[in-house]
C-alpha cells in the first residue's frame, strides 16, 4: 500500500538513524547494541495511540512512551493550552513570584488528591521538574522535618524490595532494582528494605491478601527494630512498575498506613507511574482508602507533554519549616520549578478527565483488555497474566510456571520486543515481563491488534526455548 513511498522514506529513516548515532547517547541503553541488536526507530510524529516512523511505518504505542502519555500523542487540547500559555508567559522564577497556572494546578491537585476521613487533607504543593527530582524533594522534606524538631536520630528511609523511584542518587538509594543500583551502591544513602508485598511471589496456597499480610508483618518487625531511626517510608502503591509490573493487594497499604502512624514515620506514596488513572482509580491509594503524608506525581501529570513533578504534603509537614531561621526553610529548588507551560499542560490534562469522563471510559477499555489477555495465559511459556486497571502484564518463563524463569542470557524479552516492533507494536518488556500500559484513547481495533501481536511476539520469542 505504501510501496510507492517506501524507497525514499526508508532512506530518510536511515539518514536520521546515522545522524542520531553520530551524536546521541540514549537513555537506559547499552549503546553497543545499536543498531545491530536493537533497531533504532526515528519517529516523525505522533497521532493518538500511534507513533509514525520516518520510514512511514506506524507503531502502536502500547507503553505510552515510558508511561507518560495519557490521551494519545499530540492531543490537540493540551497542545493548544501549551501554545496559548507560551505566548502569554513561558517561564518565571517561582521564588518570590507567582503565576496563575501554578496556583490553579495546585488547587486542583489538592482537591482531587486521595482523602482519608480521619486525617487532615493534603494541603500544600511543591513543584519539581521530573519524577526523580520529585522523589528527592519528598525524601529531603521528610528528613528535614525531623531535623527541625531536633529529632536527629531519624536519618533512615524504608523502601520496598523490588521498588523503583528514579535514577538520581537519592532516588536510587531507595530503589531496589539491582541492574540500576548495584554499580552505584557505594554512593548511595542508607535505606532499609522491607519485603515486597508482590502477589506473584505468593507461596503455593497463599492468596494476594496473605502476601500483603506477610509483607506487612515483615515491615512491622523492621520498624520495631529501628524504632526512632526512620523518617519516612516510600512505596509505589498497588503496582511496582519498573520492578516488573508486580501487583499487590490494597490490604498492604492499609497495614502500612497503620504501621507508619504507630511509629511516627511519614508515608510517601510514589504515584509517579500509577497516578492519573493507570490502575483504574484516579490515584492508586484510593483503592485502599489510604491517604499518604507525601504524594509524588509526575509522568502522566501533564498528559505526557512536558516534564513536571508535584509533591503534595500535609499542613503539619509544611508548618514544621516555618521559622525565623532560613536554614529551617526548605531551600530546595530547580530552575524550572512550576514552569507555566508544564502547569498549563497539566491543567488541560485534568480538564480532559472531567470533560471526557475518562475513568468511566477506561473501565470499559480495561474490561476489553481483560477479555483479550485471558487466552494468552494458555500459551506454554506464560506463567502469569495480571491486571490493575489499565495495566496488564504477562510473565514469560521457561516452564510456564513461576519456579522456572528463563536464563537472562536468552534475552527472551528483547526478542519479544523486536518481534512486536516488526509487527508495528511498541512493547518494551521489563526483563521477561511483557506489559500493556496504553494511552487511554486506544480503541477496540487497536486493542485487538495489540493482543494478536503480543501473542505472536510471545510465540516467536519463546520458539527457541
Ligand atoms: C519513572 C518513575 C520515577 C522517576 O521519574 P523520572 O521522571 O523518570 O525521573 C519515579 N518513581 C516511579 C514509580 C517511576 O515509575
TrEMBL record:
Belongs to the class-III pyridoxal-phosphate-dependent aminotransferase family. BioA subfamily. It catalyses: (8S)-8-amino-7-oxononanoate + S-adenosyl-L-methionine = S-adenosyl-4-methylsulfanyl-2-oxobutanoate + (7R,8S)-7,8-diammoniononanoate. This is Adenosylmethionine-8-amino-7-oxononanoate aminotransferase. It is found in: Cytoplasm. HAMAP family: BioA. GO terms for molecular function: adenosylmethionine-8-amino-7-oxononanoate transaminase activity; pyridoxal phosphate binding. Substrate binds at residues 66, 164, 299, 333, 428.
